[in-house]
Amino acid sequence: MACSAAALAAAGWLVSPFLDSLSDRIRSCADDLFRYLPHSGSASADLERLQDYLLRLRAFASAVERARRHPPHPTLLAWLSRLQDAAEDADDVVDEIRYRSLLDALAAPGLDLGSILDSPGSVCSHVVSVCSDHPLKQLPSVLDRLATACADYAGIASLVGIDGADSPQRRNRLARNSSSLMPADDAFVGRQRELAVLIEALVGCNGSAQLGNQSVPVVAIVGDGGIGKTKLAQMACNHAIIKEHFGTPMWVCASSHVDDVRLTREILQAATDWKVDYDGIVNFDRLQNLLVSAVAGRRFLLILDDVWDDKGMSMWENEERWRKLLAPLQHGKQGSRIIVTTRMKIVADMLGVRIPMMLGGLGPEEHWLLLKKCALGNKDSRECLHLEEIGRKIALNLDGSPLAARVIGGMLSNTRNARDWNNILETDFHGDIVKKLLSSYYHLPQHLQYCFAYCSIFPKNWKFERKKLVRMWISQGFVQMENGSMEDLGIQYFKELLARSFFHTLRQGNRTHYVMHDLIHDLAQMVSHCDCARVEGDMSKSIPSTVRHISVSSNFLPHLKKQCDLRRLRTLVVYKDSSMASSTIPDDFLAEVKNVRTLDLTGCLMSELPEAICCLIHLRYIALPGTIKMLPESVSMLLHLQTLDIPKKCQLNSFPEGMRRLVSLRHLGVDLKYISMIRGIGSLVKLQGSIEFHVKNEYGHSLQELKDMKDLHGLLHIKNLENVQCTGEACSAQLSSKRYLKILKLEWNSEGSASGPTPDEVLKCLQPNKNLEELHIKRYKGESSPSWLEVKILSQLKSLYLTNCRRWKLLPPLGQLPALRVLHLKEMCAVTEIGIEFYGGGTGTFPSLKDLEFDDMPSLVSWIGENGDSIFPHLQRLKILNCPKLIKVPLLPPTTKSVTVERSQKISNLKLTPYCSSKSGKFALEISSANILSEGFLHQKHLEATEVLNIRGCWGLEHAEGFRLLASLRKLRLSQCNMDGEQLSLSLEHLTSLASLDIVDCQNITSFFLPAGSRPFDRLQDLCFQDCRMLSSLVNLESFVDLKGLIIERCIRVTTESLPAELKGMKSLNKLSISHCPRFQSLPKNLPMSLEFLHLIGCHPVLTQWLHGRQGPEWERLPLCQITIY
């Protein structure tokens, strides 16, 4: 199928960036190319001609790009198409030469390449036959076509009136200053009235009346594409009133391409804050039941963004479909709401919305302010007065569309030149908005045009993962640089597109994705129509014959060969079809797509990758499904492969032995245990990401393998360090050269060989790079710390974990590490004292430490703190566990928010936690001895801010004076304490704010009274006695005039005489509960009229009999109240 003129006019500008990247690739591997040229003949001259043609054609293509606004000429479009075909054939030739050079290099002694290539019947023997026909034989044909393109250009340029080559200065002017672009999410102007109306509809008492008759009303925002529906909903969700009323909103994209099962699953995931993965559940009823449980009794706000009706259904069928979909949500708490954004009022009607919000364009002034904010940011408007008149005219041409204002404003943000602004003003913006946005595409730098257009192969509302998309761009050659990181440059490309509003951010729980607005996606489709295609279930869809990048559903894969030329494909993405339980790749399919660079098979639910995968000698990127269990050995023939992505949940039966041959591999996404199996991993010098390495006394598993792996990012976990044979092996790992590593784990398992180096010698050689942020040392058998564990080397270290280092006696001066935030010491059995050397002796120690933990340190006796307040100035969390000999601890800093001490001699149990919330500044404290309140461990500010105190197993309250500091204490629970009633009363004397008191299993308390002359407890509201078997007197109860609740449980000596004869003075008493007190046989006289709840359970049988019979003096004494009697 031929492309339309309009589509070709837009898509043709993708040729020049491709020529750029091809020229860059030829330069980068020039040495390899010339090395494998025949020594005689014209091959060298041919290659030089190729480079020359590409440079000339690059200039010609740039001239075409400059003339993009001219009406497309058929001759010019045909020339562009022929040029791209010839350029891609040249790319294939160059790529195959590079593959041949890698293949020859890997055939060197010591690499068992023949075991794959020469095995009888091996599919990979086909690779040898392909490469045996020297690719340079194809080069003359390619050169002829490029020469023809060069010769034809002059006549074509004259015919259509194109100037000469492009000006680099002009080409780069609009591309600079990208760092000044304002994120799209910050640009919100106007709509204040609409926002107020929306918030009132969501939380106001009159909102439901206008919305509909559902138990969970629907608010519909209706308007054209790009008019700001989603933005308005986002602003409402971020409003403080909405956050306080609903908590975290549930946001789901509900486009026309989402089926009912998937939509229900996404609503369910949003309801669980995206913390639970329900991908494996495909049963609609089960998902609905889970959704009922997730929202039951909860007030929620659900946003269904971009809802469409199903054109294949009648109005009634659409209504019924949505009624079933939303049925589980009706179990939510009253006050819940659903926001729907849609372009169609019929959607609001079918959802039962009486008065939808009809959103129109912005007014002229608001539209100009939005355009100005996106174009000029926060710059002083007086500096740009010469642009305001032009900008206002541009805004008028955009018909009030916020999306157009953001995109055009992002484009204008790169220049303050009035001529550039006038060029935008002169652009014909009449017609639909996609054509208006086309201008923003034309003004993108050429490398970004390619990257943006490529995104059209993904479905609408696709959740882009930034790293994955960048790796796909790299695999296609869109990101090229001679020095530095292609990944970093690709991320920069993405940020520039994000800043220009071609993407926007979507946060769901802890996950961050990026999505394209529907109209932006339409633009991507328009400009890539000839190169990119997407087939979503419709097998009758025509695919242009020029397509090079395509995505299809798995059910369409067997039919793809009939619909397009597979040999042209550079990208193939296969999505899962929900109706298929499993899928496979046709046997001969991979041989047909031999030129593909990017292959995403995540939608093919297969368990085994075909051996024929090795035919794809150009492959750079492959992503496999979560069902994969077997990788063929032929994978190791993919010598150009840069990314191999296998879901970490996959349980592989085996891992290819020849993985070391993938010398171009940059990203290996697989569970780390499989990476540890790779023999000779040191060949993968370009590998980034995290790896696990097991040291073995075998070829390919010594530490020397790590020597040249300088691009490792993230985590390096080295195990079995006891197998290191000599210090030279340890030093050869050159960990100090791995500047991108953030986490290093060093682990021993046993004593090691008697003839080998000592653990101290090995650890000394494993000095990490200064950029390291997290270090783990486990089961180290040495007695001293390495010399590099100090501030000069590890100035960026944020977390340090020392575990099971049983002979390590003296801790290094960690207090001087300026960035250290987390320090965990566990099973450090030889450490007896943490002294002043721990702090390093400098001014200010542990300046950044927030989390400190000592666990299972059986020999630790003393922990000495420095004098003054400079110790741990930012500490927030402290844990001391299983330190049975510890008798000395320093004073905690006031910044500490959480403290846990268990099983130490000094403190057998202590737990300090934030009360209500971490921001309240109040604490709950649990201790086993009241002495700790006055012994200089907890800071005075902790005691003054403690609202809840639980003392358990306390033997005596000799230091009750410590209670004086508990000025804020409102709740006190004493359990299993041996105090008597007098000690209890003296302690309570200091608790002036106490509102609740629980006394549990305190066997020495016989009475509860106030000392003579003490103040009345005018704040105590709840009093509870449980299991106090010696308690017999509560005669002072009438002193507690504000007491609202009194509970007495299992206090067997309590009788009627234990209480005051009359309780009428307790005018606030609301609840009285006496249970399992068998001697309690009558009620006090004159019970207060405030009493509403009386619970008598397990009391004297006589009392129970009278009350059950509703007669006698006991019954007559009761005020009108709710009575429970057993």
UniProtKB/TrEMBL annotation:
Coiled-coil boundaries: none
Disease resistance protein winged helix domain boundaries: 457-524
Segments forming domain NB-ARC: 213-379
Location of the Disease resistance N-terminal domain: 15-103
Gene Ontology molecular function: any one: ADP binding
Pfam families linked: LRR_R13L1-DRL21, NB-ARC, Rx_N, WHD_DRP
Protein origin, superkingdom: Eukaryota
Alphabetized InterPro entries for the sequence: Apaf_helical, LRR_dom_sf, LRR_R13L1-DRL21, NB-ARC, P-loop_NTPase, Rx_N, WH-like_DNA-bd_sf, WHD_DRP
Any one biological process term the GO annotation gives: innate immune response-activating signaling pathway
Keyword vocabulary terms for this entry: ATP-binding, Leucine-rich repeat, Nucleotide-binding, Plant defense, Repeat
R13L1/DRL21-like LRR repeat region domain location: 703-828
Family membership: Belongs to the disease resistance NB-LRR family.
PANTHER family: DISEASE RESISTANCE PROTEIN RGA3, PLANT BROAD-SPECTRUM MILDEW RESISTANCE PROTEIN RPW8
Name of this chain's protein: Disease resistance protein RGA2
